[in-house]
Amino acid sequence: MTIPYFKQIFTLVLIVLLINVFSFSFASEHWAKDIIDDFVSKGFVENQDLNYDSFITKKDANNILNKFYSNEKEYFDKSLYEESIPREESCALIVKAMNIELSGTSPNFIDNDKISVWASPYIATAQKEGLIIGYPDKSFGPQSNTSYAEFVTMLSRIKGTGGRDEPELLDLIDDELTNIEIGIVNYSQGEIKAVPVGDELFLSSRW
After folding, report:
1. Helix residue ranges, H only, the chain
2. C-beta of residue 181 within 8 angstroms of C-beta of residue 105
3. Is 186 helix (H, G, I), strand (E, B) or coil?
4. CB neighbours (10 Å) of residue 73?
5. Of 28, 65, 119, 184, whose CA is between 20 and 30 Å from 103?
6. pTM for this one?
């Protein structure tokens, strides 16, 4: 083996190592890492090594929703499974799965004019419920494809993964409330949100 050839091999190996280190560092610092790790631990997401910013397919979204709600529904035509999902469609999908009343208001984003007419009430409802916040420039990007991180984050906000844990909330309100119904519930220390997930009612902090 000649020295120049050896240098080429060494350079290629070094590049591969650097790429792996960079990828690991990026994943460990990603803004959605804790949320996705939580979903992996609960069995809602199977692939812990997925690229958080890659576009989620309709097949994976269907699988995650079924695990999240403990059912076996077909949310999409199987012939479309490999397609990505526009943000407005994934937003509408999750709001429909929540089975809540749609907001009668319009979304509050600077690119409302790019939101499809049919999707507007679902996006307005998701915004009202705190499932979506939008980008720093106050846009929503309705026609942009949804990443795994964005899809899982919307779902996590239903159950309050980013806020206080449900057991803590239950301890706080145990002596104050009975017969809790779906919606916003007031109690002595603030507000909570009661959200149906499968056959159970989850309580989460509202933010």
Report:
1. 3-29, 33-41, 58-69, 87-98, 120-129, 148-159, 166-173
2. no
3. strand
4. 10
5. 65
6. 0.65
